[in-house]
């Protein structure tokens, strides 16, 4: 069940990231963040009426709030990167760091995945790297060169966003399972307050056109559903494995960018998607 929930979370995260990046090309990043967070808070409040009662302590709320702040910072970097860059390249690079953080944290905490899932974790990291590579023929001599598919500055931004996402996973994991969805409510409430404060401090208006608003609403809704699935997966599996599976979210973003935006994938990037499929299969054996 943990594997299924983690994969569902990855698909939903990837879809939410695509929608958020798509909306950020047509509205300001701040507007997308604030409005989507409002929808996320409303979604988790409704979900709390469905899930059984929880026992929450101050520490659980604190972990959730901390996760919201660092995850919110990651979203700022991520949406800005998606707005100006190539989604099918920028998104997978974030997955490199997003995979590394929970895996390292899990190992430090004493988690020891069996050999097969551990190989899957390594292949998942390889798949993300493959999708981040561009194979380019040189026009002058016809030779082929391999390079990063986006500039170094964008790679740095993507990696920082990934680290923030990985830290979000770890912080949420530290909240008690008995707290239910309260840590997610604290996380999204904190990020909403932070984004709104930035808007007030800078005097920037938070608004979106009628054409973009439905996309933003879907962004917030799908993102919170992804968070709920992730939290449920953590209650049933190891952080190192669940975090790795969830960090495969760029695969969904890449596929959607290919279908909707017609972004083209190179042969190595296509290989990366295939490797990701194998990685999921290996980790499911754990």
DSSP helical segment count: 11
Mean pLDDT: 81
Q: What's the end-to-end separation, in Å?
A: 12 Å
Tell me the fraction of residues in β-strands, as a range: under 5%
Q: Per the principal axes of the C-alpha atoms, what is the gross shape?
A: globular
Order of helices and strands: HHHHHEEHHHHHH
Strand order of the largest sheet: 1-2
Supply the number of structural domains: 1
Which residues form runs of ≥5 with pLDDT under 50? Answer: none
Query: Based on helices, strands and strand pairing, what is the structural class?
Result: mainly alpha
Strand segment count? 2
Helix fraction, binned, reads over 70%
Quick one: biggest sheet?
A: 2 strands, antiparallel
The value of Rg in angstroms is 18 Å
């Amino acid at each position: 069940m943990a594997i299924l929930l983690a994969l569902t979370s990855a698909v939903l995260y990837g879809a939410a990231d695509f929608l958020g990046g798509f909306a950020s090309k047509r509205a300001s990043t701040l507007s997308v963040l604030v409005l989507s967070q409002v929808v996320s808070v409303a979604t988790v409040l409704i979900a709390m009426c469905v899930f059984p009662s929880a026992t929450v302590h101050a520490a659980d709320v604190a972990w959730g709030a901390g996760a919201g702040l660092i995850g919110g910072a990651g979203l700022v970097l991520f949406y800005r990167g998606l707005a100006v860059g190539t989604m099918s390249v920028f998104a997978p690079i974030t997955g490199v760091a997003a995979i590394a953080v929970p895996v390292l944290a899990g190992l430090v905490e004493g988690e020891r995945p069996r050999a097969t899932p551990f190989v899957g974790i390594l292949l998942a990291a390889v798949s993300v790297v493959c999708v981040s590579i561009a194979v380019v023929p040189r026009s002058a001599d016809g030779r082929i060169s391999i390079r990063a598919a986006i500039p170094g500055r964008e790679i740095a931004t993507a990696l920082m966003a990934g680290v923030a996402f990985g830290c979000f996973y770890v912080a949420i994991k530290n909240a008690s399972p008995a707290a239910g969805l309260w840590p997610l409510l604290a996380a999204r409430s904190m990020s909403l307050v932070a984004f709104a404060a930035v808007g007030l401090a800078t005097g920037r208006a938070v608004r979106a056109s009628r054409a973009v608003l439905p996309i933003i609403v879907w962004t917030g809704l799908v993102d919170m559903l992804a968070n709920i699935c992730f939290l449920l997966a953590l209650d049933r599996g190891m952080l190192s494995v669940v975090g790795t599976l969830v960090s495969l979210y760029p695969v969904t973003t890449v596929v959607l960018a290919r279908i909707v935006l017609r972004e083209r994938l190179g042969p190595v990037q296509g290989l990366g998607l295939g490797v990701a499929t194998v990685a999921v299969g290996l980790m499911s054996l754990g």
